[in-house]
Amino acid sequence: MNKRYRSGLLPLYHKEMTDHVRGTRFLIVITLIWLTCFAGLYGALSGIEEVARSDGDFLFLKLYTTGGSSLPSFSTFIALLGPFVGLALGFDSINRERNNGTLNRLLAQPIHRDSVITGKFLAGVSIITMMVFTMGTLMGAVGMFRAAIIPSLEEVARVFTALLFTCFYIAFWLGLATLFSVICQHAATSALATISLWMFFTLFFGLLSRIIADAAFPVGGAYGELNLMKNYTLEMNLNRLSPYYLYGEAISTILNPSIRFINVVSVTQVYGTISGYLPFGQSLLLVWPHLTGLTALTIITFAISYIFFMRQEVRAS
Fold it and tell me: Which of 7, 79, 130, 252 could bond to 112 as cystine, CB 3.0-4.6 Å?
């Protein structure tokens, strides 16, 4: 018999997948995702003609980065609303079982304890992956049909990489929500904690980075011009501690081949370079640290959740 089956991982994974798909929460989340997809698609189609007149290259990629007059782009929508998918799938994954008394009965079965949290997390990641790639594929298919765009192989590879980044980005928030679900006794508390961190990283972290950079390297006064580059470099490096900024910078670099640098460069470094688009492999090298960082954040949050869950006295709860 398969070792994973004997440990209870596969049955728990299948159970969690079934609970997600059949639950009312999943319908709410999938509705939000589809509304996001159609809003981003509508904004892209309404603005793609004007963009095509100014720059007709890589039009397929512009479906994901172009917004309308009153609607942001698809990538902006996902950066803002993607964390709510991870939050909805993980904020009560453990404390709900504990409060309902089902966790004790679950662990009374011949199931390894670590299979509980691992199965729940893997089921959430699977749901996120299916949502992201289904939504991204539909976005591209409808855009191709309505705008009569034929993507190149490089454009398909860039979109696939961007969707992969999106999966890791949302999986990080799933891991964070799972962590608070393990630590907090009530589901409302874990949800509030995760939402608070999302608001901090999305709305306030950039402001905090600017304040710290201005305090360390003031741009006013006699040394303002000398501190300008140091100020911007420090602010940018601090912003990269935020998953929201890290994801946004990676997505914009992958989906926009005209971006050739993501760090501060001087005039002497730019002088003599040939203007043009960056190949996919070079763009991937630019954002490889971002993917590594998002992956590390996801693994760390889940590892902390795993350790806390394994050390808790669940049966006495």
Answer: 7
Pairwise CA distance, residues 145 & 281, whole Å? 28
**Residue 225 within a domain:** yes
Contact assessment for residue 265 and residue 239, using Cβ atoms and an 8 Å cutoff = no
269-303 CB burial, b ≥16 within 10 A, e <16: eeeeeeeeebebeebbebbeebbebbeebbeebbe
User: 316 lies in a domain?
Assistant: no
Count of the separate structural domains present in the chain: 1
The string of pLDDT tens digits covering residues 182-192 is 888 888 888 89
CA triple 310-316-317, angle to 5 deg: 80
Whether 43 maps to a domain, the answer reads yes
Backbone angles phi, psi at 140, to 5 degrees: -70, -40
At 250, the amino acid letter reads: A
pTM: 0.88
pLDDT in tens, 195-237: 999 989 988 998 999 999 888 888 776 666 677 888 888 888 8
Residue 317 in any domain: the answer is no
What is the domain extent for residue 37?
A: 3-311
